[in-house]
Amino acid sequence: MKRLHWPRRLPIDPYITLLLGTVGVAALLPARGAGADVASGASTAAIAFLFFLYGARLSTREALDGLKHWRLHVTVLACTFVVFPLLGLASRGLVPVFLDDPLYQGLLFCTLVPSTIQSSIAFTSIARGNVPAAICAGSFSSLAGIVVTPLLAAALLGGSAGGLSGDSVVKIVLQLLAPFLAGQFTRRWIGGFVARHRKVLGLVDRGSILLVVYAAFSEGMVQGVWSQVSPGRLGGLLVVEAVLLAVMLALTWYGATGLGFGREDRIAIQFAGSKKSLAAGLPMASVLFGAHASLAVLPLMLFHQMQLMVCAVIAKRRSKDPVPEVTAEDRAAPSRTEAGTATRSG
Fold first, then answer.
1. What CA dihedral angle connects 333, 335, 341 and 342, to 10 degrees?
2. Would you call 163 exposed, middle or buried from its count of C-beta atoms within 10 A (0-12, 13-18, 19+)?
3. In sequence order, what are the residues at sequence separation of 6 or more whose Cβ sits closer than 8 angstroms to the Cβ of residue 219?
4. Which has the higher per-residue pLDDT, 42 or 332?
5. How far is Cα of residue 49 from the mean position of the Cα atoms in its chain?
6. Residues whose CB is less than 8 angstroms from the CB of residue 43 and which lie 6 or more positions away in sequence, other chains included
């Protein structure tokens, strides 16, 4: 008889499994009373620490050097903070057939968060794309999202995200922007330590996000938020998100082709411009939505897993594409020159 072997590559991201497990724990054992206060305080501290690490990791010099490939970065930012939100607003027409209002609010929030960094870089590398451009594009998107995402959420989601009240502004500044700036300021002293212990701090990152998820979903359970969601609505949400992802993948690829970008740049644009960051979105939702954060981040969690699975297949296929020979004229083209500069700086 043949031995059964555990598959080397699971179709589901293990971290998503941990997130779902955390949701299950919050559903069975939600934090209440004094425990809820402790969880809320720990979640607030975790969010601040996350953005402190984001600031400590981002090299200001590399970011400035990456601006030389500005057309690519503007394209990615436009996809992330203009095209995505417009599609999110258009999905309002799917209420109440496919979505109810709370799920629509969560889907719209999903379209407002910045792009990913790690997975965009990984998939761009697998597909033999412009990796330095993907690094800079993801970094710029995350940096812009600290300011742009809360402002877009306040403008488009209105009262459900706290509006533009003074308390909302103070929370955003204290929990997101101030720690990020502190990380940037202290980078000259701790940058080496952060780089040497990247793997350990990466585990701290993920553990902090799990804590944020537990606190958010616990509060949602206590408030009875999950009683508003039915299996039929979840199915409708999955269909809508699948269409949204397909549209963005097509727009980023063919749009970049129409703008005259080369193959390597098109790959970076597609992977950086079609994704949404779970790591950045969860803490922001916790700050902006409060007790309703659990329902607000559900579309983001589902979209995140979907984009990983689909983009993994696309990256694998792109890696088998024949790469055209680079001529002397191609090397002299502005796009190639910028890409080469970004490569050296990255």
1. -160
2. middle
3. 30, 31, 36, 40, 290, 291, 293, 294
4. 42
5. 17
6. 211, 212, 214, 215, 216, 286
- Rounded Cα distance between 131 and 344, Å, is 11
29-55 burial, b for 16+ CB within 10 Å, e for fewer? ebbeeeeeeebbebbbebbbbbbbbbb
Q: Distance (Å, rounded) from C-alpha 231 to C-alpha 235?
A: 6
Cα separation values, 188 from 120, 204, 304, Å: 27, 21, 33
Question: Is the distance from CB of 252 to CB of 137 less than 8 angstroms?
Answer: no
Tell me the pLDDT band of 89, cut-offs 50, 70 and 90: very high
Confidence at residue 171, expressed as pLDDT on a 0 to 100 scale: 67
CA distance 259 to 59: 29
- Is 102 within 8 Å of 228 (Cβ atoms)? yes
- The span from the CA of 75 to the CA of 259, in Å, is 9
